[in-house]
Amino acid sequence: MADLTTDFLGIKSPNPFWLASAPPTDKEYNVRRAFEAGWGGVVWKTLGAEGPPVVNVNGPRYGAIYGADRRLLGLNNIELITDRPLEVNLEEMARVKADYPDRALIASIMVPCEEQAWKDILPRVEETNADGIELNFGCPHGMAERGMGSAVGQVPEYIEMVVRWCKKYYDRPVIVKLTPNIADIRKPAQAAKNGGADAVSLINTINSITSVNLDSMAPEPMIDGKGTHGGYCGPAVKPIAMNMVAEIARDPATRGLPISGIGGVTTWRDAAEFMALGCGNVQVCTAVMTYGFKIVDEMKSGLSQWMDEKGYTSTSDFVGKAVPNVTDWQYLNLNYVAKAKIDQDACISCGRCYAACEDTSHQAIAMTADRTFSVIDEECVACNLCVDVCPVENCITMEAMAPGTVDPRTGKTVQTEYANWTTHPNNPGAVAAE
Amino acid sequence: MTSPTAPGLAAGRLDAESIAAGFADLHAPLDPHEVLVAADRCYFCYDAPCVTACPTSIDIPLFIRQIATGTSAAAGQTIFDANILGGMCARVCPTEDLCEGACVREAAEGKPVEIGRLQRHATDTVMARQEHPFVRAALTGKRVAVVGAGPAGLSCAHRLAMLGHDVVMYDARIKPGGLNEYGIAAYKSTNGFAQREVDWLLGIGGIDLQTGKALGADLSLDALAEEFDAVFLGTGLGGVNALGIPGDDLAGVADAVSFIADLRQSTDLTTLPVGRNVVVIGGGMTAVDAAVQSKLLGAENVTIAYRRGRDAMGASRYEQDLAASHGVKLMFHVQPHAVRDGAIDLEYTSDDGTGLRGTGEVVSLAVDQVFRAIGQTLTTDGGLVVEGRKIKISGAGRTTRSGVWAGGDCALGGDDLTVTAVAEGRDAAMDIHATLMEGN
């Protein structure tokens, strides 16, 4: 069985599955139970400055998007950082860390953008013997209105400034948690690196309104007739998160900067995908809020089995392995030609491919009176929509055309050579091929 | 209480509670969450095979999508637009042979979308509302006689009323509904649904229902044709084929349809006598309905005797399995030879391709009650041309007599199913309307 032990910034954990800073990690009771259940690490729910803690609303904090059978696909929340006193959290963290020395325990922190505020809290966090800190520059609701959370994460200069303070007053690893509510995720990541951050973690939640109550004409979750945007998370955000992770992983300015992947990780496969895009570990929240701590059993067994099948003996064997294959559109091979192919034995004749292609794509699927569907190669541009809408897995596949054969759509012979847009004759800015 | 082993015919073989449980709704309504899960399974197929398979061409993918998006009343409207008896069809259609049999998920995984139960949910939603969902068009001043208030007649009358015609609907029996009221297993139409459905359907207005009037006895086609602008015949098949064997006239030999009708009209099933040993002759839905209900009344031994093989049976495989699950024995390749006092002789059959023949080998079963379920016949043809023992029609139910249409079981063509009758009644109404309004 593959070894899942992970070393992230020198912080060892028995597996790469950490719980993200969120409601599941708000107190000792939960965190102990999470560790007993097998989680490799925990990022404690975000601490605020000394003094009266924040208060939360006393109505619904969450809103949801459902798929089939009320499967929760997306969750939105308007909860703030911990609403328990700082001392209580610090005492609990120290106790838990002492009892679970082999697990990672990270303190998430959000205090005002003033050097004194950081200078005050960091030594106290250090005393807990936590393995590191994560700067919450991502929370998009409530705290952002007070100049913290994503309000900081959206200004690269602030990120760099605060990270410098942290490196000045704190000796252990500093992770910067990024907000996705920004145009170019590379900028805050670069700022974090420039400030001396040891790693970034992403994504935090996405500004969202999950639904509108059409009776009361107000967004959900609704508090006494009003609603506010919340932070969106869960399986629905995974594609967005993975793109942002990949952007940072392949940006020359941040290449090699350790990343902790967050955003809809629900299964071992999700974790493996994030890690393949360069994440040293992953953080999970919505999945445990949906199913409880026990899902880590599946994550561990699944990742382990997959690693065994692939011959990976350590997670570092595959971390970042997909990054070289993430590229810009302009470098995609325009000489690659594929055609959709329908497996008639697998086809159940629902006709969804036909409706999709005929109504919205390239009119490249033919239908007979007896409901046989076949691809018209003369029209097929291999867009993949038919594959995506087909309810039968592997019924429709994209088959690459062999070099030397003629594409009946264009009448051109498929070339062996790679050629992209940068050298294409239709590109006004094309450079001559060498 | 007697017992299942009490000899001869006896009532109350089971206690009231067991009988009530046995005759409970065969397909109980889906609960709201089950509805959403079931609806979500629909693939929204292009030119969907389920629609093609439905004799009334209900837009099934549309109504299921309407359910899935929380508008079940709109879904019900979609169904009723095509099939005003969508509520009954949801209960009695052999969906395994029709929409669900054609569902691509049946082909893919042997588990079709539960179209019938979803249709029930949608139609129940609409019917639970106070108002009738259709309004009549401006009155045309035309009057149409509809003879027979079964599925075909009801469908025809409703459509005609909707189009602005005034309808007088006659039925030979005391209650309207036809086979929905008298001829379908009780567990498929519980809580007086057939009558509730008729009452609801009549809510459109413009339909004058007159029961206890039979064509041939109380009504003549000539008089109707004289009085009305058009006549629609949906009289069904009132007669039952005889067995044509010795003992056919013995006490204890009865028509399955009569047994079912008595059962459906009974207000206390513990008082309805049934034999200890019952044999049903036939292989259609009526045979299964009679056999299963005999068992549910407490008969000890119930056998369906069918002269051909399983595949040739009119009853679907689902119905066969339903019978088997209730402990009904299915015998194939046997035909009735003679009924004697307390026994029936069945002769084995074979078919070498030149026709069905008895082999001469006879098996005897103890029997107290024999039900004939070998097909039904016209009671009257109204003097119209008959073909294949049914009223000859062409197009949308046009008989050989101008101004007279026919549909449902009495008319040539189509399966003898509720849903087919509904389609034929509806289509005839559209043709009557077009004919009456010609030149207007």
Automatic annotation (TrEMBL), chain A:
Domain of life (superkingdom): Bacteria
Top EC class of this enzyme: oxidoreductase
Gene Ontology MF terms: dihydropyrimidine dehydrogenase (NAD+) activity; iron-sulfur cluster binding; metal ion binding
SUPFAM superfamilies membership: 4Fe-4S ferredoxins, FMN-linked oxidoreductases
Pfam families: DHO_dh, Fer4_21
Keywords: Iron, Iron-sulfur, Metal-binding, Oxidoreductase
Residues of the signal peptide: none
GO cellular component: cytoplasm
EC number, UniProt record: 1.3.1.1
Keyword Iron-sulfur listed: yes
Stated family: Belongs to the dihydropyrimidine dehydrogenase family.
The protein's assembly and partners: Heterotetramer of 2 PreA and 2 PreT subunits.
NCBIfam families from the UniProt entry: PRK08318.1
This protein's name: dihydrouracil dehydrogenase (NAD(+))
UniProt organism field: Loktanella salsilacus
TrEMBL record, chain B:
A molecular-function term among this protein's GO annotations: iron-sulfur cluster binding
Domain Dihydroprymidine dehydrogenase: start-end pairs: 23-129
Domain FAD/NAD(P)-binding per the UniProt entry, residue ranges: 143-425
InterPro entries noted in UniProt: DPD_II, FAD/NAD-bd_sf, FAD/NAD-binding_dom, Helical_ferredxn
Pfam families per the UniProt record, alphabetical: Fer4_20 (PF14691), Pyr_redox_2 (PF07992)
Protein name as it appears in the record: Glutamate synthase (NADPH/NADH) small chain
